[in-house]
């Protein structure tokens, strides 16, 4: 067929373009990383805490720690709410209520992160300030904002996970005389566990990658230990330092190295997700 | 024997051993309220400011301005980047699902796609600054913004479209091929017509996502607007404007402007989701 | 584990039972009694309400939305349709086996131990004994001994169905409901299940839905023929198959049914 000939060529071209674009993206990051590593080493910048790029000091540890802390805390904060929302949407609400509930959650999934950041600025930061007597900017505020931001995504994915549990398991359990609660704890949630863990991993990936909502409330400097002092994450530091380290400036390569670290973290998460996807009871 | 001869009663599930479900419902409602607490203050604080002037006038650092150019920039940048990335994404998805060329590489492709997809958008912004703005000397402008948004959207749209195509049962393809239809005849006559509704609905999601994108646009599309639209002029979007007012701006009425800007953004997103869903429903029904 | 089967008090008593799904009737004015230890086979064309009837007996029907009922159903001491019946105890007393084997995604041991654990059995020696007894009763023990820690999914379809029967037996039910238990199995596995049902006879009151008329003839004491939600005829198995009273029954049994 003629259309096939033409479209085959189009398809192959577009696919080649896709590969070229994304391999170049990876290539640019890796190339910058390589230049950075060959100057400053690999481990010492990761483990060092001194950050003064204009003076040639590239300690990334506070940012890595910031990224991990904020993300893990956010997932912990979001977990109970997500579980509850997913149970509510999959096992409690019925019919039209369930439909509107899921639709509302989808709207929240799409609410731009800058709005969550705005909410953090006018609600969470003042709260934390009042409760702790500090400026209010810091990892605690960032975790709360991020937790709320990933809550809808986490809930929708968990809801999907629970919905995938075959109704026949539920019937089998209830048919033996188990209550709804027992069935939930002992059958439904364990059966959904691999997918729930996957949902959590996707939430982690979203949290690690989030820039704007976190940047608005985290304070932006390395202010000292603890959750209540201004801090920074890999992504927020990328955002704040890009104007000071334009390409050509000697320190610019550290930005590529930070991007590389993020890429490695994402790769680990994706790999874990795939591993869990093949979990099956033998 | 006692027997109720009343009209048949509805059999209600006996509420036994459900306390955990009640607790879950309670926490769930609380979580929903927390989410609503994000959007409600937005409406309360922003609504008084939401008028024609605000929607069409340019912003003013001294207060009293609007966000007209920002809205225009947002619509144009998101619209054009969708026009670029969506067809490219659909073609890639077709290649992944409908061709068997990369069958043995499918796992690698999927993993790579996942990684690209979860790259922070800030990283993509960084790359575009490195390549387009510094090396190619593109201005900080609408066109650089379109490039960034297209790059962000491309893998995401591929991922969603692949899922739509994979839901179509293989038997249908085989039936079509058995009738003598070629690959692309099958795609254009069978696969795409079936998939359109879902693709449209998911495209609503991707549009909403692009509208909210902020981090990657700050250094590529910029924080300024010009009085007249041009592709090479700075192209601040609504989302970026909100970030700017809240973190760097010095306007006297910043609180109100921020809330109103956020409200506009939220309404845009909801409108997009609503329209895409209605459109998808319409396509679905027209198909039957 | 033998039970005294008291022939005089019916173990299941259904009086003027009608069921609607929304506005659609599924059962209409069904009356029947089953004595303890008997096996009732329910036959009838597809969609005549057989599964509905079965699900009423352990109140699983309440899981569907908008179900309306009329009449009374008594199983042992349970007034099934009463608003205050203890469903967990009812379902403990009335075990159910489904058309498709539905073992839980756990080990074989955990599957069988699920019910006893739900009802508070903690001691591992007791659990082990219960599991062993139940598997023996379900004629599965010899095939799975030493493999109890394997996932239930590794068993064949027929073995899975016997596992489900063992799981139901582990909580000491008085009644077993079987909804087309062999319909999804190969002939050899089906024959094994059938054999098992015959073995369990007299220890349990059983209601079995089947599309296989020979099976009904082989295993049951009583046969009930349903059509469009009505109980057309019920009687002794032998009489039903040799001399049905109703013309519709005869047509169904001889395959001249439309
Ligand atoms: N959950 C439900 N909601 C609404 N209608 C239902 C429901 N379950 C069954 N029905 C309807 O009630 C009638 C009886 O169904 P039932 O499942 O009891 O039939 P059955 O005799 O078991 O059929 P089969 O031999 O196919 O299993 C059918 O017309 C069916 O469509
Ligand atoms: Mg049935």
TrEMBL record, chain A:
Membrane topology: Multi-pass membrane protein
Matching PROSITE patterns: ABC_TM1
Keywords: Cell membrane, Membrane, Phosphate transport, Transmembrane, Transmembrane helix, Transport
Domain ABC transmembrane type-1 per the UniProt entry, residue ranges: 64-273
Assigned protein family: Belongs to the binding-protein-dependent transport system permease family. CysTW subfamily.
Protein name in UniProt: Phosphate ABC transporter permease
CDD domains reported for this sequence: TM_PBP2
Gene3D superfamilies xref list: MetI-like
Membrane-spanning parts: 12-34, 60-88, 100-125, 137-159, 196-218, 254-272
Subcellular location: Cell membrane
Chief place of localization: membrane
Domain of life: Bacteria
Cellular component aspect of the GO annotation: plasma membrane
One biological process term in Gene Ontology: phosphate ion transport
Automatic annotation (TrEMBL), chain B:
Keywords, comma-separated and alphabetical: Membrane, Transmembrane, Transmembrane helix, Transport
SUPFAM superfamilies: MetI-like
GO biological process, one term: transmembrane transport
GO cellular component terms, A-Z: plasma membrane
Stored Pfam families: BPD_transp_1
Membrane topology reported for the UniProt record: Multi-pass membrane protein
UniProt xrefs under Gene3D superfamilies: MetI-like (1.10.3720.10)
Domain of life per record: Bacteria
ABC transmembrane type-1 domain span: 71-276
InterPro entries, per database record: MetI-like, MetI-like_sf
Subcellular location: Cell membrane; Membrane
Segments traversing the membrane: 21-44, 71-95, 115-138, 144-165, 186-208, 257-275
Family of this protein: Belongs to the binding-protein-dependent transport system permease family.
Designated name of the protein: Phosphate ABC transporter permease
Protein source organism: Sulfobacillus benefaciens
Lineage, highest ranks first: Bacteria, Bacillati, Bacillota, Clostridia, Eubacteriales
């Amino acid at each position: 067929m003629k259309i096939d000939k033409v479209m085959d060529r189009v398809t192959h071209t577009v696919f080649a373009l896709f590969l070229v674009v994304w391999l170049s993206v990876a290539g640019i990051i890796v190339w910058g990383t390589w230049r950075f590593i060959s100057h400053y080493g690999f481990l010492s910048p990761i483990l060092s805490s001194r950050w003064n790029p204009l003076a040639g000091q590239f300690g990334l540890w506070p940012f890595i720690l910031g990224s991990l802390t904020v993300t893990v805390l956010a997932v912990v904060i979001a977990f109970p709410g997500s579980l509850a929302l997913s149970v509510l949407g999959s096992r409690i609400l019925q019919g039209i209520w369930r439909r509107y509930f899921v639709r509302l959650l989808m709207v929240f999934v799409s609410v731009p992160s800058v709005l969550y950041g705005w909410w953090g600025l006018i609600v969470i930061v003042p709260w934390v300030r009042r409760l702790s007597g500090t400026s209010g900017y810091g990892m605690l505020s960032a975790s709360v904002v991020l937790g709320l931001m990933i809550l809808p995504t986490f809930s929708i994915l968990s809801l999907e996970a629970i919905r995938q549990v075959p109704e026949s398991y539920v019937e089998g359990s209830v048919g033996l005389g188990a209550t709804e609660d027992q069935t939930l704890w002992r059958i439904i949630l364990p059966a959904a566990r691999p997918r729930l863990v996957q949902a959590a991993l996707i939430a982690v990936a979203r949290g690690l990658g989030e820039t704007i909502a976190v940047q608005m409330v985290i304070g932006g400097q390395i202010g000292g230990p603890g959750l209540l002092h201004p801090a920074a994450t890999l992504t927020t530091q990328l955002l704040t330092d890009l104007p000071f380290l334009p390409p050509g400036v000697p320190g610019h390569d550290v930005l590529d190295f930070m991007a590389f670290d993020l890429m490695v973290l994402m790769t680990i998460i994706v790999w874990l997700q795939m591993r869990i996807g093949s979990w099956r009871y033998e | 024997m006692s027997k109720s001869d009343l009209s048949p009663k509805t059999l209600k599930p006996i509420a036994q051993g459900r306390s955990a479900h009640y607790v879950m419902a309670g926490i769930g409602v609380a979580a929903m309220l927390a989410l609503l607490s994000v959007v409600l203050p937005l409406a309360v604080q922003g609504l008084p400011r939401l008028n024609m002037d605000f929607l069409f006038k340019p912003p003013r650092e001294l207060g009293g301005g609007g966000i007209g150019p920002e809205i225009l920039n947002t619509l144009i940048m998101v619209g054009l980047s969708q026009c670029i990335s969506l067809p490219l994404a659909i073609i890639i998805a077709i290649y992944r699902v409908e061709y068997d060329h990369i069958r043995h590489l499918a796992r690698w492709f999927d993993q790579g796609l996942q990684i690209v997809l979860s790259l922070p958008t800030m990283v993509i912004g960084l790359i575009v600054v490195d390549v387009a703005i510094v090396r190619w000397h593109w201005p900080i402008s609408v066109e650089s913004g379109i490039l960034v948004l297209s790059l962000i959207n491309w893998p995401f749209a591929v991922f969603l479209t692949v899922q739509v195509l994979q839901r179509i049962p293989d038997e249908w393809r085989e039936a079509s091929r058995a009738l003598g239809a070629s690959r692309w005849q099958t795609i254009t006559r069978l696969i795409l017509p079936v998939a359109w509704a879902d693709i449209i609905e998911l495209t609503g999601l991707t549009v909403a996502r692009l509208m909210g994108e902020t981090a990657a646009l700050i250094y590529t599309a910029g924080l300024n607007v010009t009085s007249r639209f041009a592709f090479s002029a700075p192209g601040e979007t609504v989302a970026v404007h909100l970030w700017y007012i809240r973190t760097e701006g010095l306007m006297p009425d910043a609180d109100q402007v921020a809330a109103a800007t956020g409200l506009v953004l939220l309404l845009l997103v909801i409108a997009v989701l609503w329209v895409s869903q209605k459109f998808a429903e319409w396509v679905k029904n027209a198909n039957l | 584990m033998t039970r005294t089967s008291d022939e005089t008090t019916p173990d299941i008593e259904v009086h003027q039972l009608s069921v609607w799904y929304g506005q659609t009737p599924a059962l209409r004015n069904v009356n029947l009694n089953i004595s303890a230890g008997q096996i009732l086979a329910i036959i009838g064309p597809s969609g005549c309400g057989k599964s509905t009837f079965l699900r009423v007996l352990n109140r699983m029907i309440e899981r569907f939305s908008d179900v309306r009922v009329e009449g009374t159903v008594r199983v042992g001491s349970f007034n099934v349709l009463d608003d205050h019946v203890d469903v967990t105890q009812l379902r403990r007393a009335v075990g159910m086996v489904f058309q498709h084997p539905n073992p839980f995604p756990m080990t074989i041991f955990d599957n069988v131990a699920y019910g006893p654990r739900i009802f508070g059995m903690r001691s591992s020696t007791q659990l082990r004994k219960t599991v062993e007894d139940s598997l023996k009763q379900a004629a599965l023990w010899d095939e799975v001994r030493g493999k109890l820690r394997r996932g239930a999914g590794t068993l064949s379809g027929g073995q899975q169905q016997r596992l489900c029967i063992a799981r139901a037996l582990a909580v000491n039910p008085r009644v077993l409901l079987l909804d087309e238990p062999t319909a999804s199995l190969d002939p050899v596995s089906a024959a094994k299940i059938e054999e098992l049902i015959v073995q369990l006879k007299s220890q349990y009151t059983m209601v079995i839905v089947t599309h296989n008329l020979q099976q009904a003839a082989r295993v049951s004491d009583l046969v009930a023929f349903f059509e469009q939600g009505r109980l057309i005829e019920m009687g002794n198995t032998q009489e039903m198959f040799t001399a049905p009273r109703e013309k519709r029954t005869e047509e169904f049994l001889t395959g001249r049914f439309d």
